[in-house]
Amino acid sequence: MSEPFLSLGPFQGITDAPFRNVFKRHFGGIDKFYTPFFTGIHKEEHAKNLQGEEIDPRCNDVETLTPQILSTDAEEILRFAKQCKALGYKEINLNMGCPFPRVANKKRGCGLLPYPDMVEAMLERVFEEIDIKFSVKCRLGYYSPEEIEAILPIFNRFPLSELIIHPRIGKQLYKGEADVERFKALIPYINAPLVYNGDIVSVKSFRRIQKTINNNPSTGSGTFNRQPVNQYMLGRGILANPFLAEDIRRDASNASERTKRLHAYVIDLYEDRLRHAGGSPKVLGRMKELWSYLMNSFEEPQVVWRKIKKINALREYEEAVEELFRNECLSLPVFS
Ligand SMILES: Cc1cc2nc3c(=O)[nH]c(=O)nc-3n(C[C@H](O)[C@H](O)[C@H](O)COP(=O)(O)O)c2cc1C
Questions:
Q1: Whose CA is closest to atom 3 on ligand 1?
Q2: Is the entire prediction scored with pTM above 0.90?
Q3: Separation of 33 CA from ligand 1 center, angstroms?
């Protein structure tokens, strides 16, 4: 199989522009990035939230970053598309996957999946006017994994630049397992270039998923996507182990270098966030959120997490991180 195309999934509150830029300075292997979702694009031009660093082309690579929107309003999506295009972006992505009840109960994110008529009306209007690539990220459904069956024929009517499917339902949030078999069964029914997302946490799980999806193609009546699926979006797995994309590409380095590189990354991200926040201890929240994933790279995640989670002063955080990386036994990351 040819080299996989790997993207870094968006995480609201974690993978913002400073994160993406620091990540790129320290790790390789990722071909494409997405912004966490934007909402509230009120103005025809220069919407306030499209002026900041999160989307400013001087702070982002417009060739490899796709801005994402959470909306069900075709006019808002078109406003977003127009402004992103003016900034130099080549594609936007629509979030039809967010599972949080606050969002989904308003028929946004994956809350839109039980309503194929709404999806159809929205896409008809969007594709009347859009002049930039348009992709969708979705789940199997909100309440039930069958919901996607009514949505796929609608997606197939439009030239989506890609369809990213995270094979869980909204009601699961991020619990349970991604249903790789169901993803596989859908492949021949999907016209758009397809991206798999979910539970890629190690090279081993990547290979297993890649094999499951591509071995013995489904013999269903679908006629699309007979080629192997070779695009994957990494999520919590790469937040936990930032070497994951390099490892998938077999770009391995030895353990001591890894500990050093991980340490340098964590410091760089913290210092960058601190600079952006004018030295405010607010950065601790963001760093802790990353550590809630990163701890899984360590031999004793719970020991690491207990140390980090109770911290509420910058100095304390700095000392704890130094101690973690000094303590050989605790800090020897276990990458598989
Ligand atoms: C805290 C959090 C924030 C997220 N924010 C976004 C987001 O803004 N847009 C999006 O499309 N997905 C978002 N996701 C979903 C992830 O991008 C990804 O699809 C999900 O974690 C499943 O992949 P995984 O099993 O590999 O982690 C978020 C997930 C979490 C846990």
A1: 11
A2: yes
A3: 13
Per residue in 61-105, pLDDT tens? 999 999 999 999 999 999 999 999 999 999 999 999 999 999 999
**Amino acid occupying residue 66:** T
Query: What Cα–Cα distance (Å) separates residue 253 from each residue in 244, 250, 257, 322?
Result: 12, 9, 7, 22
pLDDT value for 29: 97
Segments of the chain assigned E as strands: 5-8, 32-34, 65-66, 68-69, 91-96, 133-141, 163-169, 194-197, 231-234
Question: pLDDT: is 44 or 160 the higher one?
Answer: 160
Asked whether the beta carbons of 325 and 263 are under 8 A apart, the reply is yes
3-state secondary structure of 197: strand
Distance from residue 186's CA to the centre of ligand 1 (Å): 21
**Could you tell me if the CB of 137 is within 6 A of ligand 1?**
yes
Ligand 1 atom 12: residue of nearest CA: 10
Q: How far apart are the first and last CA of the chain?
A: 21
Residue 217: CB partners within 8 Å, gap ≥ 6?
Answer: 187, 188, 226
CATH fold for the domain made of 5-248: TIM Barrel (3.20.20)
Residue with tokens 């071909």: 31
Q: Is 35 in the pocket of ligand 1 (CB under 6 A)?
A: no
Q: Going by CA atoms, what residue is nearest to atom 29 of ligand 1?
A: 11
Phi, psi torsion values for 110, nearest 5 degrees = -75, -10
